[in-house]
Amino acid sequence: MEEVVIVGAGIAGLATAVALKKVGVRALVLERSKELRTTGAALGLFANAWVALDALGVSDKLAALYAPMERRGPCSLDALGVLGAS
Q: What pLDDT shows up at residue 10?
């Protein structure tokens, strides 16, 4: 039997489940989507979020896969070549 039910398997729901597991609390994560989706999303994290991910023991795994993006001024999807690309 689970002690906690988490609705939503996004970054917050999954991080909460990992944190609860680390302290011995069983959690059930419910997600409406039937499969993982890898399109149409980006995740921007402030430094405090990386501290939290480090505390959960997953920051090193993420840092090895994804390079940090530095923003140096205003930017648009068109400027990045995302819009209007064919």
A: 83
